[in-house]
Design a protein that fits this description.
The protein has 187 residues and is of the alpha/beta class. It has a single domain, classed as Rossmann fold, CATH 3.40.50. Helix content is 27%, strand content 27%. The chain has five helices and eight strands. The two termini are 22 Å apart.
Protein backbone atom coordinates (compact mmCIF):
# COMPACT_ATOMS: atom_id res chain seq x y z
CA UNK A 1 0.00 0.00 0.00
CA UNK A 2 1.50 3.33 -1.04
CA UNK A 3 1.08 6.20 1.38
CA UNK A 4 2.49 9.56 2.29
CA UNK A 5 4.08 10.47 5.60
CA UNK A 6 2.54 13.36 7.52
CA UNK A 7 6.03 14.75 8.06
CA UNK A 8 9.65 13.78 8.26
CA UNK A 9 11.12 13.95 11.77
CA UNK A 10 14.73 13.09 10.91
CA UNK A 11 16.64 12.86 7.67
CA UNK A 12 19.51 10.40 7.25
CA UNK A 13 22.00 13.10 8.27
CA UNK A 14 19.93 14.15 11.29
CA UNK A 15 19.69 10.50 12.35
CA UNK A 16 23.48 10.16 12.09
CA UNK A 17 24.02 13.31 14.16
CA UNK A 18 21.44 12.19 16.73
CA UNK A 19 23.22 8.87 17.21
CA UNK A 20 26.55 10.69 17.58
CA UNK A 21 25.02 12.88 20.29
CA UNK A 22 23.58 9.83 22.05
CA UNK A 23 26.97 8.08 21.96
CA UNK A 24 28.57 11.16 23.46
CA UNK A 25 25.95 11.23 26.22
CA UNK A 26 26.54 7.53 26.97
CA UNK A 27 30.29 8.15 27.04
CA UNK A 28 29.89 11.06 29.47
CA UNK A 29 27.60 9.02 31.74
CA UNK A 30 30.62 7.34 33.26
CA UNK A 31 33.08 4.50 33.03
CA UNK A 32 31.65 1.61 31.10
CA UNK A 33 34.38 -1.01 31.29
CA UNK A 34 31.91 -3.88 31.12
CA UNK A 35 29.36 -2.25 28.80
CA UNK A 36 27.04 -4.32 26.64
CA UNK A 37 24.64 -2.71 24.17
CA UNK A 38 21.67 -4.98 23.45
CA UNK A 39 19.50 -3.96 20.53
CA UNK A 40 15.88 -5.08 20.56
CA UNK A 41 15.09 -6.91 17.34
CA UNK A 42 14.52 -5.51 14.66
CA UNK A 43 15.56 -1.91 14.46
CA UNK A 44 17.14 -1.63 17.90
CA UNK A 45 19.84 -4.09 16.84
CA UNK A 46 21.36 -1.97 14.05
CA UNK A 47 21.04 1.13 16.24
CA UNK A 48 23.03 -0.68 18.96
CA UNK A 49 25.70 -1.59 16.38
CA UNK A 50 25.96 2.02 15.24
CA UNK A 51 26.18 3.34 18.81
CA UNK A 52 28.84 0.75 19.67
CA UNK A 53 30.91 1.79 16.67
CA UNK A 54 30.73 5.43 17.78
CA UNK A 55 31.62 4.53 21.38
CA UNK A 56 34.58 2.44 20.25
CA UNK A 57 36.04 5.49 18.50
CA UNK A 58 35.86 7.19 21.93
CA UNK A 59 37.96 4.38 23.43
CA UNK A 60 35.22 2.23 24.94
CA UNK A 61 35.41 -1.54 24.71
CA UNK A 62 31.77 -2.19 23.90
CA UNK A 63 30.14 -5.57 23.32
CA UNK A 64 27.00 -5.72 21.21
CA UNK A 65 24.15 -8.20 21.08
CA UNK A 66 20.58 -8.68 19.92
CA UNK A 67 17.57 -9.34 22.09
CA UNK A 68 14.40 -10.95 20.71
CA UNK A 69 11.46 -10.15 22.98
CA UNK A 70 8.57 -11.57 20.95
CA UNK A 71 7.79 -14.46 23.30
CA UNK A 72 7.81 -12.08 26.29
CA UNK A 73 5.24 -9.65 24.89
CA UNK A 74 1.95 -9.29 26.75
CA UNK A 75 0.20 -8.54 23.45
CA UNK A 76 1.58 -11.52 21.54
CA UNK A 77 -1.80 -12.59 20.20
CA UNK A 78 -2.51 -9.05 18.98
CA UNK A 79 0.76 -8.79 17.07
CA UNK A 80 0.29 -11.85 14.84
CA UNK A 81 -1.27 -15.29 14.94
CA UNK A 82 2.21 -16.74 14.44
CA UNK A 83 4.82 -14.16 15.49
CA UNK A 84 8.26 -14.25 13.91
CA UNK A 85 10.76 -15.35 16.52
CA UNK A 86 14.26 -14.10 15.89
CA UNK A 87 17.47 -15.11 17.55
CA UNK A 88 18.79 -13.56 20.76
CA UNK A 89 22.55 -13.18 20.46
CA UNK A 90 24.43 -12.19 23.59
CA UNK A 91 28.14 -11.30 23.48
CA UNK A 92 28.85 -13.50 26.50
CA UNK A 93 27.38 -13.48 29.96
CA UNK A 94 25.38 -10.46 31.13
CA UNK A 95 25.98 -11.42 34.77
CA UNK A 96 27.44 -8.42 36.63
CA UNK A 97 27.69 -6.32 33.46
CA UNK A 98 26.46 -2.84 32.65
CA UNK A 99 23.79 -3.22 29.95
CA UNK A 100 22.12 -0.61 27.80
CA UNK A 101 19.03 -1.82 25.96
CA UNK A 102 18.62 0.02 22.64
CA UNK A 103 15.35 0.46 20.76
CA UNK A 104 14.01 2.68 18.00
CA UNK A 105 10.78 4.06 19.51
CA UNK A 106 9.61 4.28 23.12
CA UNK A 107 5.84 4.56 23.35
CA UNK A 108 3.74 2.52 25.81
CA UNK A 109 6.71 0.87 27.55
CA UNK A 110 5.49 -2.66 26.88
CA UNK A 111 8.38 -3.57 24.57
CA UNK A 112 10.89 -2.49 27.21
CA UNK A 113 9.05 -4.43 29.92
CA UNK A 114 9.30 -7.51 27.71
CA UNK A 115 13.01 -6.82 27.12
CA UNK A 116 13.64 -6.64 30.88
CA UNK A 117 11.88 -9.99 31.36
CA UNK A 118 13.83 -11.59 28.52
CA UNK A 119 17.14 -10.24 29.80
CA UNK A 120 16.40 -11.51 33.29
CA UNK A 121 16.38 -15.06 31.91
CA UNK A 122 20.06 -14.65 30.98
CA UNK A 123 21.37 -13.45 34.34
CA UNK A 124 21.52 -10.59 36.79
CA UNK A 125 23.04 -7.45 35.27
CA UNK A 126 25.01 -4.93 37.30
CA UNK A 127 23.02 -2.03 35.86
CA UNK A 128 20.38 -1.64 33.16
CA UNK A 129 19.73 1.53 31.17
CA UNK A 130 17.64 2.35 28.14
CA UNK A 131 18.60 4.24 24.98
CA UNK A 132 15.92 5.10 22.41
CA UNK A 133 16.15 6.98 19.15
CA UNK A 134 12.66 8.50 19.55
CA UNK A 135 10.52 8.96 22.66
CA UNK A 136 6.94 9.73 21.72
CA UNK A 137 5.56 9.79 25.27
CA UNK A 138 2.11 8.51 26.26
CA UNK A 139 3.41 5.67 28.44
CA UNK A 140 1.15 2.92 29.74
CA UNK A 141 3.89 1.59 32.04
CA UNK A 142 6.27 3.60 34.27
CA UNK A 143 9.31 3.21 32.01
CA UNK A 144 11.61 6.06 31.01
CA UNK A 145 14.72 6.15 28.83
CA UNK A 146 18.13 7.22 30.14
CA UNK A 147 19.36 8.28 26.71
CA UNK A 148 16.94 9.83 24.20
CA UNK A 149 17.78 10.86 20.66
CA UNK A 150 14.70 12.98 20.12
CA UNK A 151 11.36 13.52 21.86
CA UNK A 152 8.47 13.84 19.42
CA UNK A 153 4.92 14.80 20.37
CA UNK A 154 2.38 12.79 18.44
CA UNK A 155 -1.39 12.55 18.24
CA UNK A 156 -3.19 9.28 19.00
CA UNK A 157 -3.78 8.67 15.28
CA UNK A 158 -0.07 8.93 14.46
CA UNK A 159 2.76 6.40 14.41
CA UNK A 160 6.51 7.00 14.38
CA UNK A 161 8.17 5.08 11.55
CA UNK A 162 11.92 4.54 11.85
CA UNK A 163 13.60 3.29 8.69
CA UNK A 164 17.19 2.08 8.82
CA UNK A 165 19.56 1.27 5.97
CA UNK A 166 20.34 -2.18 7.40
CA UNK A 167 16.68 -3.23 7.46
CA UNK A 168 14.80 -0.93 5.08
CA UNK A 169 17.41 0.32 2.62
CA UNK A 170 17.17 3.94 3.78
CA UNK A 171 17.62 6.05 6.91
CA UNK A 172 14.92 8.41 8.16
CA UNK A 173 12.20 8.89 10.76
CA UNK A 174 8.68 9.91 9.78
CA UNK A 175 5.29 10.42 11.35
CA UNK A 176 2.61 8.30 9.70
CA UNK A 177 -1.15 8.16 10.05
CA UNK A 178 -2.47 5.28 12.18
CA UNK A 179 -4.11 2.71 9.97
CA UNK A 180 -1.20 2.80 7.56
CA UNK A 181 1.28 -0.03 7.94
CA UNK A 182 4.64 1.31 9.10
CA UNK A 183 7.82 -0.72 8.67
CA UNK A 184 8.74 -0.46 12.35
CA UNK A 185 6.69 -1.56 15.32
CA UNK A 186 6.31 0.56 18.41
CA UNK A 187 5.13 -0.21 21.87
Amino acid sequence: MAFEARRQVMSAEELRLTLAAMASEIHEAGPNRSLILLGIERRGAPLAERLAELLRTDGHDVAVGRLDINLYRDDLTKVASQPIVRKTELPGSVEGRDVIVVDDVLYTGRTIRAAMEALNDYGRVKSLKLAVLVDRGNRELPIEANFIGRTVDTAEDEIIEVRLEEVDGTDDVRIMERGQTPVSGQE
